[in-house]
Amino acid sequence: MEITLQYFEDCANWQTTDRYLKTLIDEHGLDADVRYQLIDTPEDAAEQGFRGSPTVLVDGTDPFADRDAPIGLACRIYQTEAGPAGSPSLAQLQQALHATSAGS
Questions:
Q1: pLDDT, tens digit, 9 for 90 and up, residues 26-77
Q2: Distance, CA of 49 to chain centre
Q3: What number of other Cβ atoms are within 10 A of residue 104's Cβ?
Q4: In 3D, which of 30, 33, 43, 72 has the Cα closest to residue 55?
Q5: Nearest CA to 27 among 97, 102, 84, 75?
Q6: Across the strands, what pairs with 7?
Q7: Average pLDDT, the chain
Q8: What backbone torsions phi and psi does residue 88 show, to the nearest 5 degrees?
Q9: 15: how many CB neighbours lie within 10 A of its CB?
Q10: Spatial contact of 68 and 39, defined as CB atoms under 8 Å apart
Q11: Angle at CA 34, nearest 5°, toward 4 and 87?
């Protein structure tokens, strides 16, 4: 599976997501490559359909997609089991990765 972590420098939440992804890949022995994609201009955001940092794409699909979220350079908010957060939870990422690997 290919995972793309889209982010922009002014939002540190991507580092939490990155840590969670590495933990899941290591603990579950997933065959996954993580690619990092810096989105650093409003034009890049528009071209990529970037709905905030961090955005996780699993095999090109955003498992947390919210079509109503604005496109642009902003920190993204995720609804987690613990309330709003700047990153999907470890459990949410695990579920998204499992759903993708099960569908392969």
A1: 998 989 999 999 999 999 999 999 999 999 999 999 999 988 999 999 999 9
A2: 13
A3: 7
A4: 72
A5: 97
A6: 38
A7: 93
A8: -65, 150
A9: 13
A10: no
A11: 60
pTM for the whole thing?
A: 0.92
DSSP state of 80: E
Helix (H) or strand (E) holding 91: helix 90-103
What is the set of domains in the chain, with CATH numbers? 2-103 (3.40.30)
Q: Which of 24, 13, 7 is nearest to 84 (CA)?
A: 13
Main-chain phi, psi angles of 33, to 5 degrees: -110, 130
Contact 46, 38 (CB under 8 A): no
φ and ψ at residue 7, rounded to 5 degrees: -155, 170
Which of helix, strand or coil describes residue 36? strand
Taking each helix axis from N to C end, the angle separating 90-103 and 13-28, rounded to the nearest 10 degrees, works out to 50
Measure the N-to-C terminal CA separation of the chain; round to a whole number of Å. Answer: 9
